[in-house]
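Throughout this review, each integer encodes one residue's backbone shape. One record appears below.

===
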Amino acid sequence: MLGVAIALSVLYGGLCLAAFRHVRPETKREQVRLILALSPWWPLYNELYDETAQARSFRRVGVLILIATVVSYLLAFCGGN
């Protein structure tokens, strides 16, 4: 299960970088909002991204992968195996 969690983490990081390419220009000028776009909770800040990113559903997919990753790590470390 740990291998699945690690693979999901890598996928989540790649999706974060892909979504970061679609950060609104005004967001790139504000350092605090820019940090939010690169934080582990980036899919929860949909207003930071342009319409292209929203149309590609980066947020929805990111939230699903985040949940699956957290569950995988919990099962790997607390699953009782």
Remarks:
- The chain has one domain: 2-78.
